[in-house]
Amino acid sequence: MTLGLFFFGCTMVGPDYTRPKTTVLPGWAEADQKGVSKEPPDYRAWWRVFEDPVLDRLVESAYRQNLSLRVAGVRVLEARAQLGIAVGQFYPQSQQASGAFQWNRISPYYPLNPTQAELTYTQDQFGAAASWEIDFWGQFRRAIQSADALLLASVADYDSTLVSLTADVATDYISVRTLEKRIAIARENVETQRESLEIAEARFLWGTASERDVAQAKTVLADTEASVPSLQSQLQQAKHALSILLGLPPGDLAEMLAGPEAIPAPPPQIAVGIPADLLRRRPDVRQAEYMAMAQAAQIGVARAQLFPAFSLTGNFTFISTTLPGSRLSDAFLWAGRNYTVGPALQWNLFNYGTLTNNVRVQDARFQELLITYQNTVLKAQQEVEDGLVAFLRAQERAQLLALSTASAKRSLDLAVEQYRGGITDFTTVLVGEQSLLGEQDNLVTTLGTISSSLVGVYRALGGGWQIREGMDLVPPEVRETMAKRTNWGNLLNRATYMPPASGEHPPPLRLPDW
């Protein structure tokens, strides 16, 4: 008890972490726009706002199978094992059992040979030795703090990977549906332009139009047909990217994508909450702060090297020989014991300059990470604002494009009728066809942009990682493989490698029980 109280009274050199000041907006600049709500949103499964069962299925599949996410999960196990190493350093650092059996010959010329004759004998010994550097200056406790913060950072990295994964799946899926719609529009325009070609050919045969009309009609038709292979190439590439996110080889995903080929439509109103929520929700913000916390503890580890290290060392062995008056079996007698025990001091006085500069290095790295954290908070707010602007302006653009598309369709219909009657030339029809195709393609592309911009908003808000709550970060098949290969003890259990839940941000760091 006395020794425990002594350790408890030991100091810890180095700074204790305090969160740096950050500039956080009181509210979003676009929060007063129509379609935006200040109410706290539910980010756990934000993709469900699109009400698309195919998208729900894809996200669930990616969560279970994505390989990058599995890598992030294994990194958490790695960080947990590193924490175990740091905790182990707090206790006796050197603990050894030893044993030896030796044949010895002592020369008659050896000064300590009393017989002045050749002496041969055997000797055996076995015992144990230990060395414990007392954590007087908090070096090992600071190292535990650092490893604990790195464990929390690895969990935040997993969450950040999950945020990106869900957003990437939704973005690629929207791209697939948008490209499918653009291909369908191109093919519809091909049919319309073929009808116009047939009219031009008929009028040419009747002598009421020139061959130039036929050539122009063929040119526009071929140009529209040529756009289809390019769009199909983009579609296949989008499907390949989606396959990789699902942990599958590149394929067409026909079964996974079975369903209505419609661009996921956003809800009429989205909730964004307030900027201060980002500090608690965005994993990359949490990760940046945990990295700074880990580095703050490293300053204490480096500073402890400037002070003397106090250790307790000892060894205990049994020794027996075949020298006269002794037998090898005497090793098991209490009289054959040998031991040494005592305190030790080590002080790197002549390396003071090197150690001081190491403290400065650690402090500079800490300051870098503090600034990185502040910058991460600023960028997080920028990404939300950018996403909201893109989402709202795309909606306005879509409304105008819907009007222009309707007008282009009406204009083409009139031009075709007038050309049939010989009232106008074929150039008017060609201009109408090209205008309609461009307007329809722009409208569909903008509808896809609206949905993908909304995905960007949810990505910026840090939503999606919540689906892993209560779940293992490492799939069962991966844990089984690792358990067969290496003795992981109980570290593969989620309760062991996951930090305890805490309502605070960041949660308090853990130290060994005294």
SSE layout and pairing:
Layout: H1 2-8, E1 36-37, H2 53-65, H3 67-88, E2 94-106, E3 119-133, H4 139-206, H5 211-245, E4 270-271, H6 278-281, H7 283-304, E5 309-321, E6 337-346, H8 352-420, H9 426-461, H10 476-485, H11 494-497
Parallel strand pairs: 1-4
Antiparallel strand pairs: 2-3, 3-5, 5-6
Walkthrough of the structure:
The protein has 514 residues and is α+β, with helices and mostly antiparallel strands. It has a single domain (2-90, 135-308, 351-497), classed as Outer membrane efflux proteins (OEP), CATH 1.20.1600.10. The protein is 56% helix and 11% strand. The protein has helices at 2-8, 53-65, 67-88, 139-206, 211-245, 278-281, 283-304, 352-420, 426-461, 476-485, 494-497; strands at 36-37, 94-106, 119-133, 270-271, 309-321, 337-346. A four-stranded antiparallel sheet has the order 2-3-5-6, with no helix packed on it. The protein has a two-stranded parallel ribbon with strand order 1-4. Helix 4 (139-206) packs antiparallel against helix 7. The chain is elongated and about 135 Å long.
Supply database-style keywords.
6 strands, elongated, 514 residues, two-stranded parallel sheet, Outer membrane efflux proteins (OEP), single chain, alpha+beta, 11% strand, 4-stranded antiparallel sheet, disordered N terminus
In short:
This protein is of the alpha+beta class and 514 residues long.
Helix fraction bin: 55-70%
- Name given to the CATH homologous superfamily: Outer membrane efflux proteins (OEP)
End-to-end gap: 10 Å
The order of strands across the largest sheet is 2-3-5-6
CATH architecture: Up-down Bundle
Number of strands: 6
Estimated share of beta-strand residues: 5-15%
Q: List the secondary-structure elements in sequence, H or E.
A: HEHHEEHHEHHEEHHHH
Number of domains: 1
- CATH class wording: Mainly Alpha
H/I helix tally: 11
Please tell me how large the radius of gyration is: 37 Å
CATH topology: Outer membrane efflux proteins (OEP)
Q: What is the residue-mean pLDDT, rounded to a whole number?
A: 86
Unreliable spans: 1-9, 502-509
Query: What gross morphology would you assign?
Result: elongated
Main sheet summary: 4 strands, antiparallel
**Structural class label:** alpha+beta
